[in-house]
Amino acid sequence: MTDQPEKLDLASHNLPTDKTAELLRLFPEIRTEGGKIDFDKLKLVLGQTIDVGRERYGMTWPGKADCFKTVQTPSMGTLLPIPNEGIEFDTTENLIIEGDNLEALKLLQKAYLGKVKMIYIDPPYNTGNDFIYPDNYSESMQTYLQYTGQSDTAGKKFSSNSDSDGRYHSKWLNMMYARLYLARNLMQENGLIFISIDDHEMENLRRVCDEIFGETSFVGVLTWITTTQPDNIGRARFGLQQNIEYVIVYSKCPSIELPPFILASNGQERKYPHQGRFGACRLEIIERAFDGAYARPTLIFPILGVMPREGKQWQIGEETAKDLVARGRIEIVDGLVKRAVYPEDEADEETGLIPFWSYLKQVGTSQSGKAELTKLLGNGNGFDTVKPVNLITEILSHLPNDSLVLDFFAGSGTTAHAVLEANSIDNGKRRFILIQLPAVLDTEIIQQRTSAQYLDGIGKPRNIAEITKERVRRVIKKLNDEEAGQLPIHGKQDRGFRVFKLAESNFKTWDSTAPKDGKALEKQLEIHIEHIRDGRTSEDILYEILLKSSFPLTTPVEKVEVAGKSAYSVAGGSMLICLEKELTLEAVRGMAEMKPQRVVCLDLGFAGNDQLKTNAVQIFKNKEIVFKTV
């Protein structure tokens, strides 16, 4: 019987331990005396399914082995809450994380394992000038701290990946492999990932995804027209104009019970509240706003004598409109042209699904995406290539409208914009998690100089993550202004976001690599005694404990008082976190009487009082409460 509480694990999810446990669960006969795996026995168990040949099909590149080791190395960082940079911090379920996405993905492993329905990313295309994360993965956290000015030591800089570099493709592959591997763990069993890409790395990305997700998990390739404006003929290779990009789609599992692309956006039966010419139907507005010069003349024409309103164009072409009119599928309601949609118009008789065509029409172009951003932020924001919001809302429309959506290459924040817009259209409850590196803008580069000057003008620090946050703030304001004075029919929507920033753990950990001389040992002992970093708040510590105890960052938390001491009640009382530095026996008994499943306290709370700590262990054990200290 021990009289010491269990220590809270401050590391992120340990992937090798998880994989080992799964193998031992499936094949208990391969367990060695030390609890490890006997691979000779594993080969016997699997028999002829083991490929022992030297030559086999696969993909390799320089640095892949080191990259994989880094994936398996837990993070010792944390995510610090920054309430004043978000909107409705205490209630929203949307997140914007400012930090290196490799470290952030590691930190999300415990709390968000298997919770993400959809991932959309628009990573660097590796065109020769793209921003690429450092490939010295063994120092990823330290490099990040140095890069963002959180560490005094001059470190490696994140930089572009020149096509003259000897490891031009390898650097990009190392960056993508590590992040996709971690991202897969966060997906639901029937989750999907959508990755934007062009011709430069299309083939390599497919092969990496085949390895991580499995070839049988390949869903397809979506194609869309990225521009309708020809480039300078002299710059086009052999005069060929590249105006197409792709979105490759993989599922987490090769076989899932329910189709990933569903008829109703919330997985429920469509409702048809309007009585139309041919029975029950629903009405859809077929107008869509455009920005400035990006209106399409072919989408501005009369339908039943009615023109689109100012600043808008139809979502359908003239031939489609004529067909709908001929079939009685167009109605004029309060002066607005609407499409009448009947049940037989949208469901495949056999599957009940709306077709999701691989060629995406009318989703906008890079120019319209830039125009959308300019309309929100004004000129001079520095983004020349921006994904159009409709590209992502089209994808969202085929998935449940309560999906958790992750984008770990957030850029200007188009994914959050699309989620908020989609929710406003169908009253959905989609939530987003964005991750964006606070890439410091280099004023020596013209485009980055423009962004830096823009941020100076609005009083924000010179990094890309500030543009991400500002766009989301303005989207929320725009949607709220449009609905001002209207009563919400289905209740208030979640139009907020919490901001968290990547940093070192709130707790100083014992450095086993430090020199073993007397002076160094004395310093380590001092750290062990006062192990909370200077300047960290109770809220900082609270969210680290939540994250590393497998609770999402949006878990409801209530501050309570127990025998004169403060504590945090998590998820309706399932866990209590007490960060008091002078605990009492009454407080311990009070927490036990609240009957939580878990209790976490600071080691400092028992400083110099071993008897109190021993009593706490026994009190919580008698109540069958898991007790840990940090």
Given as residue ranges, the uncertain stretches (5+ residues, pLDDT < 50) are 263-268
Oligomer: single chain
Reported for the largest beta sheet, the result is: 9 strands, mixed
Tell me the CATH superfamily of the largest domain: Vaccinia Virus protein VP39
If you average the pLDDT, what whole number results? Answer: 84
Summarize this structure as a short list of keywords or feature phrases:
alpha/beta; 6-stranded mixed sheet; 630 residues; Rossmann fold; 23 strands; 19 helices; 18% strand; 9-stranded mixed sheet
Structure notes:
- This protein is α/β, with parallel strands linked by helices.
- The chain folds into 3 domains: about 80-265 and about 355-500, Vaccinia Virus protein VP39 (Rossmann fold, 3-Layer(aba) Sandwich); about 275-340, no CATH class; about 510-630, no CATH class.
- Helices cover about 30% and strands about 20% of the residues.
- It has 19 helices and 23 strands.
- The protein has a 9-stranded mixed β-sheet, with helices on both faces.
- Strand 14 and strand 15 (about 335-340) form a beta hairpin.
- Helix 13 (about 415-425) runs parallel beside helix 15 (about 465-480) and helix 18 packs parallel to helix 19.
- The relative contact order is 0.13.
- Mean pLDDT is about 85; it is low at about 265-270.
Quick overview:
This protein has 630 residues and is an alpha/beta fold.
